[in-house]
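To assess whether ligand presence alters the predicted conformation, the chain was also submitted together with pyridoxal-5'-phosphate. Input:
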Amino acid sequence: VARIEDLSTPCLLLRRQVLAANCARMATRMDGLGVALRPHMKTAKSAAVAALATRGQDRPITVSTLAEAAYFLDAGFDDITYAVGIIPQKLAAAAELQGRGARLTMITDNLEGVTALSEEAARLGASFDFLIEIDCGAGRAGLPPASPAVLELGRRLQDAPGLSLKGVLTHAGHSYGCRSSEEVVAVAEEERSGAVQAAEALRAAGLPAPVVSVGSTPTALHAARLHGVTEMRPGVYMLGDLDQMALGSCSLEEIAAGVLARVIGHNRQAGHLLIDAGGLALSKDLSANRFLDNVGYGRLCDRSFTPLTERLYLAEAHQEHGMVKAPGGAPPPFERYPLGSEVVVLPNHICMTAAAYDGYHVVNGAGEVEDFWPRATGW
Ligand code: PLP
């Protein structure tokens, strides 16, 4: 057991008990709603976290890169959905993973791309399972649920040598724009009904659509019903962050990860403290600022994740400097934070922040560092 004071900063802390509770809460909720949980590991990128998140399931997961897929396959997770549109150039890597035992599912929304995907599959002597990506309102990628292109793409996938259709997938990214839990409930219903509508249209045309995959953290936590859905893919809920807190997806106590940093300077003239966590240590994501004041690039806690009474926050972030201010322009209490003082910064968006680190220093309830859990990196 190591001590927090022995860690070099900045580094990423992960509260094991909070993480375990977040994972159990989601698994129980999905059981209650009668759908499988296929957690999205894009946030945590850790096999130890995936083991907690998939408790009691047949260990299906979602990933956002083929590097993650390779990492999780090596850790024994072989049922993997790669939930980012695939291109022919990436199929050789996918085939290599399948050769090592992965059961991969990929997604596309591109009619014109099917021929090239099929030709590449033939060249590789491989075959691939596909879900059609549906846009249920987020506007990022996917076909509208009622579009005739869904059927056309379904037919082309099913007819193309080396490719087969398994169903549909959608992600309600627009849940992040909601202002109330009622709005999230409504977006969750859009997500559900859009995916189910597309799957039913495929089935009515005689095409296979056994998989109806939906999910985001806000919709997974707020959906009132999931009839017709087969699986949910939330990811951020495992760790939590200020944006999820602002959206009502978690409380402050349920945030499991934060950046341990130390005070490296006092700028009394300008009225800020300096810490060794800046833009590279936290990312420049500002998402929670659309709902909350005095967030900036993150809010400060003590090393047991208790918010500081002075409500200090990271007002500016340079590459390796974080400038810490108090609300309303009050000078921070410099004497309470001598050089080397430890703070934990809760980030806006943990997916972006965690990407800067090789792994998590896992802390227990007593604040002891119990373990180091590596993260998958690269693409
Ligand atoms: N599915 C897809 C396709 C995603 O892109 C994401 C996140 O971006 C998720 C699921 C997980 O949602 P969340 O990040 O809200 O947990």
